[in-house]
Amino acid sequence: MKIGLVYEHALLSGGYPRDLRWLASGLAALGSEVCVFSKPGGERDGLVADVWLRDLGELNRFDCELYHVFGIFRLPQARLLLQTVARNKPLVVSPWGQLMPFHLLKGRFKKSLYLAALKPWFRRVRWWHVFSALEAASVHNYLGAPVNTFCAGLGVYPVGEDRDEAGQGNLPKGTELLFMGRNDVYQKGIDLLLKGYALARQQGLPWRLTIAGVEHRKSAEHITGFIRENRLENAVTLLGKVSERDKTKLFRQTRYLVFLSRFDGPPRPVREAIAVGTPVIVSPQTNMAEEIDAFGAGLSVDPRPQEVAGVLLQISRDEALYRRHREAVPRLRERLAWPQIAKDYLEGYTNVLEEEHND
């Protein structure tokens, strides 16, 4: 099978570009001929020599059996989608969680205009790749009719790749709960986590919480203000950006990573915690709740403060539950190895081609 993976940033740094490169190599290892169409860039992590690299401008010069376009909310990606639709070739599109309700609410006016222009083209896309059944429902709802979807997630990476990087040396001690990632208070649900945590503290939760990651749009002001107003100075630590080495240390010394996104692709910090062996508490909107629940590697919770508080109290009072979660994480880590993830995509692509040939 000759597969064209189309993503403008595939050769840049960052989470999704790295994911695409590892996916491309995983598909190549399964015997597929893979061509990545991207803007120029210097990142090659995860790529093997068998993967072809082509500039986006060459998209129309190479003939693949199937094209997979990643992302819809950037004009270059939209142009690529239109190009591939116009070629009348089997096409798969990944919205990357961006048709989920809370994402569409953020910047609603601009997005509504953008999507109104593209919706007729979206309706010509017969196959959508999604991360979960919840995301599949969002695509159906947005398009106003059932569409074909297949589900495949993203994989985990080896631990300890940055062993020579210096650590900060001032990591908090005795932290049982951790949020790690970009401190986007709205998207990542940090406001929901803080409210749920404050309610749980009022009901006797003894555990400490650390919030780590890069500041985002005055997030530090919001978080420190909440900590001060709720007198949580001795319970919550806002750590800021940490090195890769310290990130791994934090994952290993905490009991649970808590990640309550309102919308997301499979978040990189959740996958990093699983790689290290740390159980996770996630919202369904992370698009990883299905795997977490199926393997018992933590818990999923509706992202409402009262529900969050109940789950935090539950895990703090049940040591046997924590041990079961901890024992289950390695099994989920094996399931999320990139060779297994690549098989999920290849199975989806095979179904697409079979359906196309039968029509």
Describe the structure.
- The structure is a single chain.
- The chain is 44% helix and 15% strand.
- The protein is an alpha/beta fold and 359 residues long.
- The chain folds into two domains: 2-155 and 338-358, Rossmann fold, CATH 3.40.50; 177-335, 3-Layer(aba) Sandwich (Rossmann fold).
- The strands form two sheets. It has a seven-stranded parallel sheet with strand order 3-2-1-4-5-6-7, with helices on both faces. A six-stranded parallel sheet has the order 10-9-8-11-12-13, sandwiched between helices.
- Helix 2 links the parallel strand 4 (66-70) and strand 5.
- Helix 1 (15-29) packs across helix 13 (338-358) and helix 6 packs across helix 11.
- It starts with a strand and ends with a helix.
Quick recap of the structure?
This protein has 359 residues and is α/β, with parallel strands linked by helices. It has helices at 15-29, 75-86, 101-105, 108-122, 133-143, 190-202, 219-229, 244-253, 268-276, 289-295, 305-317, 319-335, 338-358; strands spanning 2-6, 33-38, 52-55, 66-70, 91-94, 127-130, 148-151, 177-180, 209-212, 236-240, 256-259, 280-282, 298-300.
CATH architecture of the largest domain: 3-Layer(aba) Sandwich
Query: H/E order of the elements?
Result: EHEEEHEHHEHEEHEHEHEHEHEHHH
Total separate domains: 2
CATH superfamily of the largest domain: Glycogen Phosphorylase B
Strands across the major sheet, in which order?
3-2-1-4-5-6-7
CATH names the topology of the largest domain as: Rossmann fold
Number of distinct helices: 13
The residue fraction in helices comes out at 40-55%
Termini gap: 19 Å
Structural class: alpha/beta
